Amino acid sequence: MTTRPWNLIPQDPWKRNQLAVTVSAAFIFSGFTLIMPFVPMYVQMLGVQSQAAAAVWAGVALGISPLVASLAAPIWGRVADRYGLKIMAVRITFALFAIWALTAFAQNVYHLLILRFLLGLLGGFNAFSISLATQLSPQEKVGRVIGTLQAVQISSTAVGPFVGGILAGWIGIRHTFLVTSFLCLLSLVLFVFLYQDKDSIQALPPVAVPPPQPQEGLASMMLLPDFAVIASLLFLVTTIDRSFAPVIPLFVANYRADPLEAARLSGIILSLAAFAESFAAWYSGKKMTRSDPKQFLWVRLGAGCAICFLIGFAASTMQLLGLRVLLALLAGGTLTVAYTLASRVIPESQRATAFGLLSSFGMMGGAVGPLLGGLSVLIDIRSVFFFNSLIYAGLSWAIWRSLRREKQQNLRSQSA
Fold first, then answer.
1. Domain boundaries, the chain
2. Looking at domain 217-416, which CATH architecture does it have?
3. How many other C-beta atoms lie within 10 A of the C-beta of residue 354?
4. Do 11-198 and 217-416 share a fold?
5. pLDDT of 22 strictly over 50
6. Which residues make Cβ contacts (< 8 Å) with residue 43, sequence separation at least 6?
7. Are 247 and 377 spatial neighbours (Cβ–Cβ below 8 Å)?
8. What is the C-alpha to C-alpha distance for residues 131 and 352, in angstroms, rounded to an integer?
9. What's the CATH number of domain 11-198, 3.30.830.10, 1.10.10.60, 2.130.10.10, 1.20.1250.20?
10. Cα three-residue angle 316-159-128, rounded to 5 degrees
């Protein structure tokens, strides 16, 4: 008996939503990173001859999108809370489809810069992906849904640059932008035909959510239980993760005289760490259904503190490789846990706004991390690992204090 393709689509609305968002995340994040290896070369194709100038323009072009997206995310979140997440997803994927297609036909570097600005202003899929994936999810499934989504996002960004380099050599740089545009078009189709908003479901099982807050401003969200700690954690953990990118190639170059071999080993280290973080995100989401998230988070942050400290004493590339992968496995998944904790305190009426605000903190960390890594090299190439260890220690202490406060509150309520 032949199984028809449409019979593979889940019947439960929340599972269909998860399928649409997760597959779209794979398409969109793969598409984003397809173009990463050759942006400096594309800048030179657009008329910037100097290699140094091309590097600067490429850095500005790559950095402006997440910066603008981090500022726009809370505003778009308010719009999504008012008009629905589905229309926001359709708007985002259509904008991504159109902008990537136009990028393939850019005539100068200013066109590229304007299109990258619009990509951040009108795109921002990352800021809404968690809201989209968890909108109809039962509370006990939220951790697993977030973990699966983040695992797909991380693994897609690990595979994307490799595939993009192959495509650029095979079909050309401009056509590779069109491949990214086509992937975004597929995501648009998934959202149009599979995704359902909460308001479109006639009968939903009751889900326990916190009562709406009397104020709905962005400042009031920081007063939600643990929201400020979660926001700080997202910013600082992302800062740590992104700080490795500029440092690891330089560290490897100290032990490998051949620049090509050093670049190859650096790529292997970064890719293996990304896949390890992907597994850690999936495992953390699964673990959230059976353990206390804060306790789990505290252990992971403590492990991150210890391993970052040990990386500072790595004496070979193999030691660096082993410790970096170990860090990803043991300290990875903290973002999944943080988003799971946030989902438990965010009012349903402010879901998109709150997750957009949290994503803004993460994107800002993505901008600060490479800067921290680059500046730390001015002190010593190993100093970034010790800085990161201190950051992990501070976060671990903050979570320990939160656990201790909860324990004291429970004791007082039992004795009352």
1. 11-198, 217-416
2. Up-down Bundle (1.20)
3. 25
4. yes
5. yes
6. 54, 57, 58, 61, 109, 112
7. yes
8. 6
9. 1.20.1250.20
10. 115
Structure tokens belonging to residue 130: 């968690």
Rounded (5°) CA angle 400-343-368: 65
Q: For residues 309 and 296, which has the higher predicted lDDT (pLDDT)?
A: 309
Tokens of 94: 């259509």
**DSSP code at position 44:** H
- Both tokens of residue 38? 């050759």
Nearest to 186 by CA among 60, 110, 96: 96
- Cα–Cα separations (whole angstroms), residue 6 to 146, 189, 394: 25, 14, 49
Of the candidates 361, 356, 363, 347, the one whose C-alpha atom is nearest the C-alpha of residue 77 is 356
Q: Which has more pLDDT, 220 or 42?
A: 42
The structure tokens 């500022």 sit at 71
**How confident is residue 215, by pLDDT bands cut at 50, 70 and 90?**
very low
**371-374 own/partner pairs: CB under 8 Å, 24+ apart:** 372/239, 372/243, 373/242, 373/243, 373/244, 373/245, 373/246, 373/247, 374/246
- What φ, ψ does residue 172 adopt, rounded to 5°? 100, 155
